[in-house]
Amino acid sequence: MTDATDTQMTSAAPAQPRGRHWLITLSFLLLVVAPTALCAWYLWERAADRYVSTAGFSVRTEEAGSAIESLAGITGLSGSSSSDTDILYDFIQSQQLVRQVQDSLDLRTIWSKVPPDQDPIYAYHPPGTIEDLTAYWRRMVKVYNIGSTGLLELRVQAFDPDDAQRIAQEIQARSSDMINELSAIAREDATRYARDELDGAVERLKVARQAITRFRNRTQIVDPQASIQSQMGILSSLQGELAQTLIDLDILVQTAPANDPRIVQLKRRIETIESRIAEERSKLGLGSRPRNDEGQDEGGTAEGGELDAFADLVGEYESLIVDLNFAEQSYTAALAGYDSSLAESRRQSRYLAAHVRPTLAESAAHPERTKLISLVALFSFLAWGIIVLAAYALRDRR
């Protein structure tokens, strides 16, 4: 009974901290408190304020309807093109745009207003190569593609709000120029083939008309069809006159003696008319022309330089007319195709539509000090906790 009472009256000895407890405390100070304190000091003492200018835009494709569609009440619809949005997304992050904006605004000067020795993490280290500037650009210029809507959101950071707005405005202007250039290239591609066809048709028409002009200059005949009709009229008249002369001769032979001078005169007239008919028929290509003993035709033209038969001239002229008609039809079709292609290319035009103009910040948005401190403290604590748990796990396995 006495022993039990003595045991109840005895108090437990206080716990004494051991070496591992001091080690855990030291590690907590080194891995959690120190990084958090260092980050807080840097953010509040050295990190410069950065202002953000925000802009929003999209690439729109305007399809203008034809006159018939307008009468039917179908108006042009404006839609966004995902491919153009992707192209613009890559362009904003490209070295080409960085170089263009650098030439216009001098980005190196703008982003090095805060000396690098004051803020070595966020300030730009001049001068640097274009690759260095592009890498820093991608830290300070963020572009977000908002889902499948085709909308782009641009956020530009700078150490001065006016500089951030100027950079955003320059990006928007350069992007608009690039989209306009793409639209011009597409329009040129759409009409190049039709224009080549039109140029070929124009050249073919010129050649056909020049051939007609050379033919008329060479033959001194404007229209062989009209000339041959005139020649046929002359030939018909001669044949009629020959028939009448033959009738007169037959009547005279029956009533007059054989040595009558009128009979000789009629025979000479008949010979002359027959010679003229043979010559006219030769011109028309209906027979050979009579020739004299010197190898010349009775019209006085040498054999080597005789006039072409009208049949050959008409055949040549008709061939030239066929070529001319074909060239004219080809030109008409090519011109209609070119006008149609040009109208179709004008129906679709791309343009940059800005639904949010570059803003001018009134307060600094970066660095987000409280957020960064919280993240540093959280991840430092998680890392410290993992290390401590791993150490205890190794100790318990011994």
From TrEMBL:
Keywords, comma-separated and alphabetical: Membrane, Transmembrane, Transmembrane helix
Chain segments carrying region Disordered: 281-303
TM region(s), chain numbering: 21-44, 372-394
Entry superkingdom: Bacteria
Matching PANTHER family: FERRIC ENTEROBACTIN TRANSPORT PROTEIN FEPE, TYROSINE-PROTEIN KINASE
Name of the protein this chain belongs to: Capsular polysaccharide transport system permease protein
Species annotation: Jannaschia pagri
